[in-house]
Specification:
The complex is a heterodimer of chains A (301) and B (493).
Chain A lengths: L1 H9 L1 H12 L6 H13 L4 H18 L4 H15 L13 E6 L6 H14 L4 E6 L6 H12 L2 E4 L6 H15 L3 E6 L7 H17 L3 E9 L5 H13 L3 E5 L8 H10 L3 E5 L7 E3 L2 H9 L6
Parallel strand pairs in A: 1-4, 1-5, 2-3, 2-4, 5-6, 6-7
Antiparallel strand pairs in A: 7-8
Helix pairs in contact in A: 1-12, 2-3, 3-4, 4-5, 5-12, 6-7, 8-9, 10-11
Chain B lengths: L6 H13 L6 H17 L4 H15 L2 H4 L4 H17 L15 E7 L5 H14 L4 E6 L6 H12 L3 E2 L6 H15 L4 E6 L7 H14 L3 E7 L6 H12 L3 E5 L8 H10 L3 E5 L7 E3 L2 H8 L5 H11 L2 H13 L3 H13 L2 H8 L3 H8 L8 H9 L3 H5 L6 H11 L3 H25 L4 H14 L4 H22 L4 H10 L1
Helix pairs in contact in B: 1-2, 2-3, 3-5, 5-12, 6-7, 8-9, 10-11, 15-18, 16-17, 17-23, 18-20, 20-21, 21-22, 22-23
The chains are: A alpha/beta (301), B alpha/beta (493).
């Protein structure tokens, strides 16, 4: 099960701290519960969610007579997995579709577009890349490198052009060449900047109106983001009515706990997760695997 | 936004609860400390740091003299503030660039997407302003088009960029420092490197190799202000391998609570040198720990505003201010002031610096946006010279004309005139204060203004009280300062 292993690898650091509390002593006492709370908070799950999960689990343990640490670990994984909103639709599989990538600066939007286009192209899907990040210096060039590498057509305009009109042109071109999957990169922006958010609102409106296929607006979030991720996701969702999430940079030591909080709070499915630099490292998300990798549950699948 | 109220909101709520009490018991302190703990955790301050911080604060708060002192709450606030400043680093850290070496070298490192390339350009702009001639070296050979990005940004800030396309990062850095800097007449090289994960051994080694090749005077780590708990392991590893000298905290213009900033100093002992907050090249600022701490606690950054205003104020505006105080406030003054605000970094930034106002706006659920200035400007520009000088002559007929001329409704013109009336009133109460009035009066003026801006009256009064209280606090604090500061403050108003 390569996929699971990779994910587990990526999340190994968070598991180490988990292991400490599950193996130290192994007996479940007050100290154990406190440590559990702390550990969940340290995984960026947020104080509120962490305390909630720990309390629920404590109740469950009392009710079902779970006394051994490993039993509780499995229950914890199940509990965390249940926090995720399940995915009902995959815009990268059910075609044709058009996906707009939004997020704050440096979340990894451009790279994600490049990787997803590559994967789809290799599976024989007719792709089109749209470069609507007309703000950041060299964002278009960066995307162009990805498009060229894979031999995929890309539509864009010069730096400073109106991003909504770029999207319009992208969709027009998509119809001409019969693209099945259209991926559009937008400029990163902070969710607190009202002007830039309303610009993005226009981009989304224009795209939704012009497109002849279903349009998905996907928020890309860096896994190292802390509690601010929640406020980001909320603002983007309010402004754009998001359809899903992609969590990037889950390798490293990031614990990705913020993914739990966002998916739960905003009822948004996680469509892909990035666990490494290479193209194959952008993977399908599986709530159970993720939760088990996060807490290091025993491996009897 | 209630769930995501910022650290200063949370702490302020806690202190508001305490303020109602004349005497504090140990239980009160415990409750407050728990709130502080939660608030800090939600601000992404590292768990271990929080624990130690709260323990330190609590110990001091429980000392008998604090509990039985005349104003225990104020003392608790002072203790928390002092500890926060300590946590952020007590003194302002400066770049150490020895004059004996030419060119000086600054190297930037950090994770992917933390904002190194942008920070490099901003740093170049800042140092140019100090009379240096920086060269930007594009050593990110991994991310597609990274060099293009630096080149574009370099052009914008007017700094030369060296890109050794096709070479490896170490060679580019070396060439930039050893030859290119001299060739282009630069006395400083800023080395932009690729983003790397702290666990990526190959990439970390590359960073070490660059460092060994060019021996930077300063290594700065760029850290995203939104980073979560993980920041500790990130900076720890970078610190072990690179032994960096300071931190640039990026993306602080969002609503991130900057808890990472609090943690970095505590964990590594390395100071935060700059904060980057905006899209423009001039948005890199020197980090002041004490001001940051006051901001986190909702005490505002009054000194910051004065400095900002000083940067812009010239003889002319000083004369204007005096005239406004003495002869009343015209529409032209209003326009000048709005433009001044715009120059100082926009409403939003200013709001964050004034004690209480940031919070008040969040509570009223309104956005502060510079766009609101545009219609006002249009309306004022549609007035005749006479109308601008003496707004009281604007009658119904004139209102209609102004509305038509500016493309706005008569209602909007009415609102504008009402706003002017309020501001004029405030000016005259300020005049009273200058001649020996009190803070209470000014608080009332503020309440009127807030109400006029469409706020709930109860809220507005609350804010005004806060404003008056903050004003009082500042006065107290100012007592020890040289007299000059006091004068400047008056001038600003």
């Amino acid at each position: 099960m390569a996929l699971f292993d990779r994910l587990k690898d990526g999340l190994s650091r968070s598991r180490q701290t988990m292991n400490e509390i599950f193996y130290l002593g192994g007996e479940v006492d007050d100290q154990f519960w406190e440590d559990l709370e702390d550990t969940l908070v340290m995984g960026d799950m947020g104080a509120e969610v962490a305390f909630q999960v720990a309390d629920d689990l404590r109740e469950q343990a009392a009710r079902e007579g779970l006394t051994r640490a490993d039993q509780i670990r499995d229950a914890l994984a199940t509990r965390i997995a249940a926090e995720f909103t399940p995915k009902t639709w995959d815009p990268f599989v059910y075609l044709p579709s058009c996906v707009l990538f939004v997020g704050i600066n440096g979340a990894g939007k451009t790279t994600t577009v490049g990787k997803l286009a590559n994967v789809a192209h290799n599976q024989g899907v007719k792709c089109l890349i749209g470069g609507a990040d007309t703000f950041r210096a060299a964002a278009i060039e960066q995307l162009d490198v990805w498009a060229e590498r894979a031999g995929i057509e890309m539509v864009t305009r010069e730096r400073g052009a109106d991003p909504a009109s770029v999207c319009f042109e992208v969709l027009e071109r998509g119809e001409q060449i019969g693209a099945q999957l259209t991926l559009i990169d937008t400029a990163g922006r902070l969710h607190t900047s009202a002007d830039l958010m309303s610009e993005l609102g226009k981009v989304v409106r224009v795209t939704r109106k012009r497109a002849s296929c279903k349009v998905f607006v996907v928020l890309v979030i860096d896994a190292t983001t802390g509690q601010n991720g929640l406020s980001q996701a909320k603002e983007f969702n309010d402004a754009l009515d998001l359809d899903g999430l992609i969590i990037t940079k889950l390798d490293g030591t990031a614990k990705g706990g913020i993914a739990v909080a966002i998916s739960h709070d905003l009822k948004l499915p996680i469509l892909r997760i990035g666990v490494g630099e290479s193209i194959e490292d952008l993977q399908q998300f599986n709530a159970k695997d993720f939760a088990r990798a996060l807490v290091g549950a025993s491996e009897g699948v | 936004m209630a769930v995501f109220s910022s650290l200063s909101d949370r702490l302020q709520d806690t202190f508001d609860k305490l303020r109602g009490k004349g005497r504090l018991t140990e239980d009160d302190i415990n409750v407050a400390m728990r709130e502080i703990r939660l608030a800090l955790l939600e601000a992404d301050v590292n768990f271990k740091v929080v624990r130690a911080f709260v323990a330190r604060c609590k110990e001091q708060c429980l000392e008998a003299e604090v509990l039985s002192s005349l104003n225990p709450t104020q003392n608790v606030v002072r203790i928390v503030l002092d500890e926060l400043v300590k946590l952020l680093g007590s003194t302002d850290a400066e770049l150490q660039l020895p004059a004996t070496r030419k060119p000086n070298v600054i190297m930037l490192v950090g994770l992917q997407g933390s904002g190194k390339t942008t920070a490099a350009a901003k740093l170049a702009y800042l140092l140019k302003g100090q009379g240096r001639k920086p060269l930007l070296a594009a050593c990110d050979v991994h991310r597609p088009a990274a060099a293009d990005q630096l080149e574009t940004l370099g052009r914008e800030v007017g700094a030369p960029v060296f890109r050794g396309d096709g070479k490896d990062a170490v060679a580019i850095a070396r060439e930039a420092v050893e030859h290119v800097a001299k060739l282009r007449g630069c006395d400083l090289v800023i080395v932009d490197t690729a983003g790397r994960l702290q666990i990526d051994e190959v990439m970390m080694q590359e960073a070490v190799d660059i460092r060994d090749a060019v021996k930077p005077d300063q290594i700065l780590m760029v850290v995203d202000a939104m980073t979560g708990q993980d920041i500790v392991s990130v900076v720890n590893t970078f610190n072990e391998r690179m032994d960096f000298d300071g931190v640039i905290m990026s993306k602080l213009d969002g609503d991130a609570r900057g808890g990472g900033a609090l943690s970095v100093r505590e964990v590594t002992g390395k100071p935060i040198m700059f904060v980057s907050q905006g899209e423009k090249p001039d948005s890199l600022e020197v980090f002041h720990p004490d001001r940051m701490a006051r901001r986190i606690l909702g005490m505002g950054d009054v000194i910051g505003i004065i400095e900002q205003a000083e940067k812009l104020s010239d003889e002319q505006s000083v004369r204007d201010a005096e005239r406004m105080l003495m002869e009343g406030f015209t529409m032209d003054d209003m326009l000048t002031q709005l433009n001044q605000v715009r120059k100082m970094g926009g409403m939003r930034k200013l709001a964050g610096m004034i004690p209480g106002v940031d919070r008040a706006i969040a509570q009223s659920g309104r956005e502060v946006s510079d766009e609101q200035i545009i219609p006002i400007e249009a309306m004022i520009r549609s007035m005749t010279k006479e109308e601008r000088a003496k707004p009281r002559i604007i009658n119904g007929q004139r209102r209609k004309r102004i509305a038509q001329g500016s493309g706005h409704s008569v209602q909007e013109v009415n609102t504008l005139i009402k706003q002017w009336e309020q501001m004029d009133k405030m000016m005259s109460s300020l005049r009273g204060m200058a001649l020996g009035g009190g803070g209470r009066q000014m608080g009332r003026g503020m309440a009127d203004m807030m109400r006029n801006m469409g706020m709930d009256p109860a809220e507005a009064n609350k804010i005004a009280r806060m404003g008056a209280a903050a004003g009082g606090g500042n006065r107290q604090q100012r007592r020890g300062r040289p007299k000059k500061k006091g004068n400047q403050k008056k001038r600003r108003r």
